[in-house]
Structure to design on (307 residues):
């Protein structure tokens, strides 16, 4: 008999590393239960342990601590495990709106989304979005977000935004000022699409980010808002250390200042844009001061700290 106690998503993006093993282990749960045996693996948000002739799978989120000792696991109460699994499954249905088979389907799609090649990842993305029609996975994905490696979560934030833009506001605002540059960039792209001009300040701060991906996302966000007042900051970005940021700034300036029905406005030299702005600055309300100090989204040197 194999007891499965799968509570959290099996997602390759979670950051748990296997630790050294001793002769035996006791896993102490937050609900005061404990299980004796030998830990086999500790990854994907799950602890797998051999207890006697059984394998037990426990969610790391429910584990209080692990002790090493010489117990081999003959005293495990499997009825208690099954009862607890049923209770947690009921809790998850209430929290996420998905029954176990649907959660398992999401888990499998997430594995392909994060681990698969480009084609497999695209297929998984489509599968997750297709679920919205009759068994929306949005709440389940929200439930999983805290357990997903911030360095990998960016693309998933954009998928979730496609599912439910309105309810992603708070989450995106959080990740926009979080430690992962990839999540910051994804958040800026999504927030810009909401067309709420209160988010322009985040774009301005994003232009001061030390990471290229974030500066490009911020520039494209300015484009989405049609914010001509940001021209001075875009002019400054024309001399950015990264050519990709320079190109993005040049593209955005062209989009912002090309009049309807006219050919795209372009200048071969940066000086052309500078001279052009001199003719427009006085008539542009609220123009940003490119020399003014701007607080970046996160302090320079911020990195993701993985447990």
């Amino acid at each position: 008999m194999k007891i499965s106690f799968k509570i959290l998503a099996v997602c390759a993006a979670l950051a748990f590393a296997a630790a050294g093993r001793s002769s035996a282990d006791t896993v102490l749960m937050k609900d005061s239960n404990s299980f004796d045996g030998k830990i086999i693996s500790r990854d994907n948000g799950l602890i797998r342990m051999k207890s006697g002739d059984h394998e037990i799978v426990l969610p790391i989120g429910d584990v209080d601590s692990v002790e090493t000792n010489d117990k081999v696991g003959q005293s495990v109460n499997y009825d208690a495990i099954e009862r607890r699994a049923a209770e947690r499954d009921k809790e998850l249905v209430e929290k996420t709106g998905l029954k176990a088979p649907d959660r398992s389907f999401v888990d499998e799609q997430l594995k392909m989304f994060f681990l698969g090649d480009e084609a497999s990842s695209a297929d998984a993305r489509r599968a997750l979005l297709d679920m919205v029609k009759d068994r929306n996975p949005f709440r389940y994905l929200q439930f999983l977000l805290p357990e997903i490696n911030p360095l990998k979560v960016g693309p998933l934030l954009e998928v979730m935004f496609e599912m439910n833009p309105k309810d992603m506001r708070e989450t995106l605002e959080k990740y926009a000022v979080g430690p992962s540059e990839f999540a910051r960039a994804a958040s800026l792209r999504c927030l810009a699409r909401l067309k709420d001009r209160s988010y322009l300040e985040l774009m301005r701060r994003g232009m001061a980010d030390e990471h290229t991906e974030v500066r490009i996302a911020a520039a494209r966000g300015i484009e989405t808002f049609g914010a001509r007042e940001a021209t001075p900051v875009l002019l400054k970005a024309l001399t950015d250390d990264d050519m990709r940021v320079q190109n993005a700034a040049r593209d955005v300036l062209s989009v912002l200042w090309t009049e309807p029905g006219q050919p795209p406005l372009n200048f071969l030299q940066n000086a052309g844009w500078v001279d052009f702005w001199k003719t427009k600055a006085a008539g542009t309300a609220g123009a940003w001061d490119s020399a003014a100090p701007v607080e970046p989204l996160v302090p320079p040197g911020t990195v993701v700290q993985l447990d």
